Amino acid sequence: MKPLRHILVPVNFTLCAKNAVRFGRAFAEQTGATLSLLYVHDGDLPSPDERRQMTAWKEELLDEMRAPYQLHFRGGKVVQAICEVAEAYQADVLFMGTTGIHQPSMVLGSLTWQVMVEAPCPVLAIPQEARMEAIQKVGFMSDLSAIEKPQSLYPLFFLADLFSAELHIVNVKKRAAGISSEKTQAALALEHELEDIPHCFHIIEDQDLVHAARTFVQQYDIDLLAIMPRKHTDLEQLFAGKLTQQLALHLETPLLAFHEA
């Protein structure tokens, strides 16, 4: 299993971004990865005040850190700049702070959603209320469709291995019905890929994917929820803007989004 080498955290000097940096530092210290902070500014150069703020954050959050770190400034459009830096520095994951349930007007807006869609790597959205504690249970919302490239599931394997966590796979059905033979075969194939990881499967009947996710997280004490939206499936709706925003609004749990390889 390949190591985690580079964590990129876009910052805008808000409390929710500060929480994402704390998560990033904890992950970096546990894995030995490099932690990079990125501030996207207007114009050709960052202002003196923006440089002072980055220096203050370094002193508060990164001094005496037990892993390497870097500070980056980049001019341009925010989403484009974040994705370009992630590509250029071969980031393995992006950590992005979100305001969470207590500030719904600001929650996981178009910025984080666009980064989730366009980023070349997985994106972990971290609510401001989330706390970096032991991750014991990782949830995965699955449509139980065949996965042609098992390496697509690497982010799940990595998290489960890193934290010795249980993996809980949930499939949401919109109506009472049996599981099709195709989904049964896909579940068996997934079972084979997960043979070395403690795991279990759940089925929830719910017309509302967001409500189903909330129920799943609360009922099974999920510490981190993962989604892999795929074309022409219900989970693709989670990248349709409002559904993603609602999901983050009603969860105080970090949300990992990654694409099929």
TrEMBL record:
InterPro entries: Universal_stress_UspA, UspA. Pfam families: Usp (PF00582). Residues 5-127 form the UspA domain. Belongs to the universal stress protein A family. This is Nucleotide-binding universal stress protein, UspA family. It comes from Catalinimonas alkaloidigena.
